[in-house]
Amino acid sequence: MKAALIPIHPIQALLLITLASFPAMALAGSTGVKEPEPVSQTEASINAEGLPVETIKLRQETGYERESVYVGPVEAGRRASLGFEISGGLIGLQVDEGDRVKVGDLLAELDTQRLDAARVEATASLEEARVSLALTEATLGRVESALAIRGVSQQELDEARQARDTALATLTRFKAALKRIEVDLSKSRLRAPFSGIIVKRWVDEGQVIATGTPVLDLQEEGTHEVRIALANELADRMAIGQSVDLEIQGQTQIAKVKAVLPVRDRRGRTVDVLFNLDTSAHVRPGDLAELRLTLRTDTSGSWVPLSALTETVRGLWSVYTLDDQGQAQRQVVDILYQDGEQAYVRGHIVDGLTIVADGVHRIVPGQRLQALPNVQTAQQGD
After folding, report:
1. 113-187, which class in CATH?
2. Which of 202, 323, 358, 367 has CB atoms 3.0–4.6 Å from 307's, for a disulfide?
């Protein structure tokens, strides 16, 4: 008896064939060996001749120069907070902020009614003292005449002289009282001590002003100076009348040294130097002025580009040199100063030493290197 054939769909047949061939493919893949990739000609050249690097020759220096910037405020030549020397009610302000005044101009005044009354009283007392003095002098003259004919005693003469002296002292006292009132009356008017501009008004009319209370701030126009704190050794380099360039609001202004103050600041241990600005300088008090000074530090070392430095363990810095076999050698250096893209370093450096100038992140000690041509010499300002 023949077995019956079961019909198979074409898709089912394809699936059976694929499953049957999978073990064979897996076996072939597990036993196969991947062929190594071919080495390029560039890599072969690098391995043979060394990694191409840019190099630079170091030049031994005796020191380096650095530019330091010192900042100080612009100040008015003269500025004063004006107030009354006596107390009283403010009855008038003749100026306001922004007004320009001349020396001697009336700025403000106090109520003087009490002082006016006191002056009248003092004037009357002074006249009374004059009359009293005249009477005592006349009495003294008569007593002296009577004494000549023994009409009075010596005691009466002494009393007459004492009365005259007392009247004279009283007259002097009343003169001083009237003078004091007149001085107070003059102090009740506030006048400009110098020409300038009113920059601040502190009070208004009607206020009772105590002695010394600021009323107006007056600032001199046209004259400005700059105060800059310098280290003692730098201040000693400044000579009276010396011209310097100051940068103020992006503009270079010529100034002259006015004074080097003989006092050292307790906190910063600095010395204030005053500079006079030209009267034509368009500046304002409160602007900041910059003084640039070039200082030289005498210590041996060399300039290297920052790209030649690499950080090592414990925060140390180093450069890579090339030995006679063209191999990279690490050399530790101390960074003394940084100027832009360069650094002034100190270490076991000899004049003409060749170091790697760039790409140090690709290098390890002992690696073979190939120096590219056109080697330059490092110096400040490159």
Report:
1. mainly alpha
2. 358
Q: In the chain, which residues have pLDDT < 70? A: 1-49, 374-382
In whole angstroms, what is the distance from residue 48 CA to residue 226 CA? 66
Annotate 287-343 with DSSP letters as a single string: -EEEEEEEEEE---BEEEEGGG-EE-GGG-EEEEEE-TTSBEEEEEEEEEEEETTEE
- Give the span between the Cα atoms of 210 and 216, in whole angstroms: 14
- Dist CA 88 CA 90 (whole Å): 6
Nearest 5°: phi and psi at 42? -65, -45
What is the dihedral sign for C-alpha 137, 138, 144, 147? negative
Residue type, 125: S
> At which residue do the structure tokens 């001085």 appear?
183
pLDDT, tens digit (0-9, with 9 covering 90-100), for 178-236: 999 999 999 999 999 999 999 999 999 999 999 999 999 999 988 899 999 999 889 99
Task: Enter the pTM of the model.
Answer: 0.59
Local structure of residue 7 (DSSP, 8 states): P
